[in-house]
Each structure stands twice: as C-alpha cells, then as structure tokens.
UniProtKB/TrEMBL annotation:
It is a multi-pass membrane protein. It comes from Acetomicrobium mobile (strain ATCC BAA-54 / DSM 13181 / JCM 12221 / NGA). Keywords: Membrane, Transmembrane, Transmembrane helix, Transport. This is Conserved hypothetical integral membrane protein. Pfam families: MlaE.
Amino acid sequence: MYKWIEILGKAVVSFLDLLGWIASLATHVLVHWPLAKWDTRAIAEQLERVGVQSVFMVSVISAFTGMVMAVQTLDQFLRFGASRYIGGVIALSMVREMSPVLTGIVVAGRVGSSMAAEIGTMKVTEQLDALRAFGLDEYVFVGLPRILASLIMVPILTIYSMVVGTFGGYLYVAVRGVHSLMFRDSIRILVSTYDINGGLIKSLVFGFVIAIVACACGFRAQGGAKGVGETTTLAVVWSNMFILILNYMLSTVLFGGRV
C-alpha cells in the first residue's frame, strides 16, 4: 500500500515540477524576446518542419476521420429521415473538435518529439553552454523560432484539416446517394463563423503547448543518449495529455451550452 502511495506521490511531484518549469520557461521567453538576440532565419526552417512536412499525415488522418464519421452517422440519420443534416454534423465535428485535436496530436508526435530530441542533444553535448558563452540567451535563441513556427503553422494545418476532413465525409455520403447541394446547405445552416474561430483558438493554444512542452523537456535533458530518448518520450506524452485536457476546458468555455 505504501509503495503505491510513494509511486503516486513521485508522479504528482514530477508533474508539478515539469508544470512549473514549463510556466517559468514560457514567462522567460515572453519577457526577454524583445531584447534578446535570436536567429530569424531559423523561423523559415521551423515553419517548413512544422507545417509543410506535416501536410501528408494531416491529410490522411483528417480524410479518413471524416469518412469514419460519415460511416458511423449516415445510417442513423437515414433511419430518422435527417440525412439533410449529415454534412453540417460532420463539418461541425471537424471544425469544433476533431481537426484541432488531431492536428495537435500529429504535430506533437511528429514535430514535438523532434524538437525535444534536437534541443536535448544540444543540451547534453554542451552546445547550449556555448551559446551562453557567446552572450546569447539560449532559451530565447533556440526556443522562440520553434514557438513562433508552431503558433503560425498549427492553425493553418487545422484549417486544412477542417476542409479535408469534411470533404472526406462528403465522398462517402455522396456514394450513398446524398446530393452535394444538400450536404453543402447543411454546412451553411449548422456551421457558423464562431465555430471556426473556436477551433482556431484551440489550435493556437495547442500549437503553443506543443512547442513550449517540447522545448522545456529538451532543456531539461541529461544523461547522454538515454536521457535524450527519455526526453523525447516525455515531450510526446505530456503534449498529448495537455492537448486533451485543454481541449475539454476550451470546449466547455467556448461551446458549453451552445447549440
């Protein structure tokens, strides 16, 4: 019994320690970036890594998610004579929930892990110490381009996911005989600008969380190659956990009680 309490206590302390370090790092970057030197050319590289290189995975996952949603809902809608609403329901689900969350998880797994491993390697090979020796703020110099790239590209990828996922759902229902005009009109009726904006707000939060968690884990790496591997795993695990937790909170605030 006491062993389990000890394990639980260590997990809670570890979580709070990481949460405090993430908050400290985020505050440091936000406060010091106007005065600190940082490589603006690195942003282009990070934009490509976060955005362009994630397009294929986002396309496949979003398209098949839309198709699966159509498969699961169309028969029920046909049974109750509500097939004219199928397009709006699929689009609303993609816009509000699926696209922001799926895009965040894809970026966290593909890019967040890469960021954490890269920074962790720089930490254990003392490259960050070299930056500090040259008078640079390593947290801003290394972290800021990655944070900015995530803030820019994750919302763009989310918009792309909304379109692809909705189109994927349309492909299935079109084969089942639902007319394109009916599908389009239901989207116009059920989906509002507020819903799209809510999804984009989520994607902004998720983009920031992915980058700051990856950077925080990378800066805490220690113990050589093994430590870098553990850091990479922690970055992905914590990013996904924060995405799901924050998704619930944001959904409650943005869409709770809204029809």
